Amino acid sequence: MDTLVVVLVVGAAVAFVAIKAVKAARTVARGEAPACCGGRSEERRVGKECRSRG
Q: In terms of Cα–Cα distance, which of 36, 34, 40, 32 is closest to 48?
């Protein structure tokens, strides 16, 4: 029974990683920055710079 639990947990982890990879690939295909690359934080940084200059 323990082997079955390990197999199920590992399978779930592999599926999770695969889903994340597919979502990241779709994001890149749309021309957006993936969440791991900090796309939103870059927008926030630029916004702060613009506000500080104005």
A: 40
DSSP string, 1-54: -HHHHHHHHHHHHHHHHHHHHHHHHHHHHTTPPPGGGTHHHHHHHHHHHHHHH-
Tokens representing 20 are 């994340």
pLDDT tens by residue, the chain, 54 residues: 699 999 999 999 999 999 999 988 888 888 876 666 555 666 777 777 777 776
pTM of the predicted structure, to 2 decimals:
0.49
CB 45 within 8 A of CB 33: no
Give, in order, the Cα–Cα distances in Å from 29 to each of 18, 26, 42.
16, 5, 19
